[in-house]
């Protein structure tokens, strides 16, 4: 409902000029042939490798951990649901707003690199906190939840600023398709690894994405096209 209202309440941004151009399948290769766009897309793939798998399984992780060590008098399922809301809802909204605010002032490559570095670190340690006090686990999850989403909108913003105006829709479509395809893989991978190696190993697998994501965005930061990002801030 809110999204429907927003369609009528807000006007298109400055890149909207004239009628919407059609999807240009012949231009799909530009997403990889143009180095700056390729790096932005690789950064996004690294981000998506981690994001939806974490969102999908963090609640299950909480519930299993809270069954081992919970809060007396509080149902583990209820506590897990509350913790998941704090991670995805409160942390997600706060992280997205903070990331957008900082990216416009410090630069998109700076914010995405920092966000993925922190979220990747949290992916490495959070699973090994299994069985810790619920408040410790929820706090760690919230830090992860803030930084895992704080870079999200910046990848599409990079594509908007790096693409030719008539190819923006095509390039965003390519980027989104790649990201959600990767998400299908990692969402399926986490429970397999968790069953055989535990939650620590399962979440560590998600840190792979931020590693290559940070590398891609640092390379983009050095690329001449970085001056097109965030009003020249990179």
Q: Provide the residue-averaged pLDDT.
A: 93
Distance between the termini: 35 Å
Q: What profile does the largest beta sheet have?
A: none
Please tally the β strands and state the result.
0
Estimated structural class: mainly alpha
Helical coverage, percent range? over 70%
Q: Strand percentage, roughly?
A: under 5%
Characterise the protein shown here:
Helices cover 75% and strands 0% of the residues. It is built from 10 helices and no strands. Helix 3 runs parallel beside helix 8. The model has no long low-confidence stretch (mean pLDDT 93).
Question: Which labels suit this protein?
Answer:
mainly alpha, 234 residues
Mind sketching the topology for me?
Layout lengths: L1 H8 L20 H4 L1 H34 L7 H31 L1 H19 L7 H16 L2 H11 L5 H30 L1 H8 L1 H15 L12
Quick structural gist:
The protein is an all-alpha fold. It is 75% helix and 0% strand.
């Amino acid at each position: 409902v809110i999204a429907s209202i927003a369609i009528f309440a807000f006007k298109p941004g400055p890149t909207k000029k004239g009628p919407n151009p059609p999807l240009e399948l012949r231009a799909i290769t530009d997403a990889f042939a143009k180095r700056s766009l390729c790096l932005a897309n690789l950064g996004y793939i690294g981000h998506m490798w981690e994001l939806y798998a974490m969102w999908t399984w963090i609640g299950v992780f909480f519930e299993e951990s809270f069954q081992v060590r919970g809060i007396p008098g509080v149902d583990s399922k209820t506590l897990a649901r509350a913790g998941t809301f704090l991670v995805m809802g409160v942390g997600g909204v706060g992280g997205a707003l903070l990331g957008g605010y900082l990216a416009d002032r410090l630069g998109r490559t700076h914010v995405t690199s920092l966000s993925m570095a922190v979220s990747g670190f949290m992916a490495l340690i959070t699973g090994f906190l299994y069985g810790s006090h619920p408040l410790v686990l929820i706090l760690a999850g919230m830090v992860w939840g803030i930084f895992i989403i704080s870079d999200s909108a910046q990848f599409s913003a990079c594509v908007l600023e790096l693409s030719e105006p008539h190819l923006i829709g095509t390039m965003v479509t390519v980027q989104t398709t790649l990201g959600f395809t990767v998400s299908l893989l990692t969402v399926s991978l986490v429970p397999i690894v968790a069953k055989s190696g535990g939650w620590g190993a399962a979440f560590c697998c998600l840190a792979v994405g931020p590693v290559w994501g940070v590398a891609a965005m640092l390379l983009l930061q050095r690329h001449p096209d970085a001056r097109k990002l965030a009003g020249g801030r990179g």
